[in-house]
Specification:
Helices cover about 75% and strands about 0% of the residues. The chain is mainly alpha-helical and about 160 residues long. The C terminus is likely disordered.
C-alpha cells in the first residue's frame, strides 16, 4: 500500500512559482477561516477527541506551512512519510479518520474560492490525493495504534510482517 502511495505521489506535479506565491500570500487568512469553520462544527469533539481542540487549531496553522514547503521543494517520499506520521500522531491522540475528510473538505472549499483558477488547478491535485487516500493512510497506520488487533490471518498466526 505504501509503495502505491509513493507511486501516486511521484505523479503529482508541483505547482509553478506563481501559484506557490499566491498560496503563500493567502494561506494565513485561509487557515484562520478554516479554523473558525472547523471549530464551529457541532461534531468537533467526535472528530478530534475530547480536549484536542487546540491541537486541531495548531494543525490548521502548521498544515499550510507544510504544504507551502512541499510545493517549493516537492519530494514525494517526504509527502507520503509526513502524512503517515500525521495520521499516526493525531490518531494516537484520539483524532478520528473522519477529521481529515472534514478538514480537507473545508480547505478545498476555501482554496477553490480564494485562489485564482490557475493556482487552484495546480494545487488541487495535492489536496485531492490527500482526500482520496484517507482510507489507505488509515489502513497503514491502524497497526500503529495502541490496542490494535489485526484480523489478518498472517498476524493471527505470527507469520505476518506487523510492525
Amino acid at each position: 500500500m505504501k509503495d502505491e502511495l509513493l507511486t501516486q505521489a511521484q505523479k503529482l506535479e508541483p505547482p509553478g512559482e506563481t501559484a506557490i506565491r499566491e498560496f503563500a500570500h493567502k494561506w494565513e487568512n485561509i487557515a484562520a477561516t478554516g479554523t473558525r469553520l472547523l471549530m464551529g462544527r457541532p461534531d468537533l469533539a467526535k472528530l478530534v477527541g475530547k480536549g484536542n481542540e487546540q491541537m486541531a487549531e495548531d494543525n490548521n496553522r502548521n498544515f499550510p506551512r507544510f504544504m507551502l514547503s512541499l510545493f517549493s521543494d516537492y519530494q514525494p517520499a517526504v509527502f507520503v512519510e509526513t502524512v503517515l506520521w500525521v495520521f499516526r500522531a493525531y490518531r494516537s491522540h484520539g483524532f478520528q479518520t473522519t477529521y481529515w475528510a472534514a478538514n480537507l473538505n473545508i480547505w478545498v472549499d476555501l482554496l477553490r474560492k480564494e485562489l485564482s483558477e490557475d493556482a487552484w488547478q495546480q494545487i488541487d491535485p495535492f489536496y485531492n490525493w490527500l482526500i482520496v487516500n484517507i482510507p489507505i493512510f488509515t489502513a497503514i497506520t491502524d497497526t500503529d495504534l495502541p490496542g490494535f488487533v489485526s484480523n489478518n490471518p498472517d498476524h493471527l498466526h505470527g507469520t505476518g510482517t506487523q510492525k
